[in-house]
Amino acid sequence: MLYAPGLRDLETMRTVVQAIGKPLNVVMSAADPALTAAEMEAVGVKRLSVGGALSRLALAAFMKGAREMKEQGGFTWVRDAMPTTDLKAVFGA
Fold it and tell me: Is the pLDDT at 93 greater than 80, yes or no?
């Protein structure tokens, strides 16, 4: 498995897959976010990594809510919060 951060587009991924002769891992924090897993699989990518991107996504949502409270005194962010029942289902509570 070649771990290849920095690959952004399908053509480059295809070129690397053909050149290395082993499975390719693409790091999604560098790749074009409009690409789909199916598109990358079609050019030979065998594994995708997201690193800390999901935790940064969660922190971005947290910051958006905190800024709304601080700057506007608002709470519209609550509409996007995961319902408690869904959290319980995820964590088996």
Answer: no
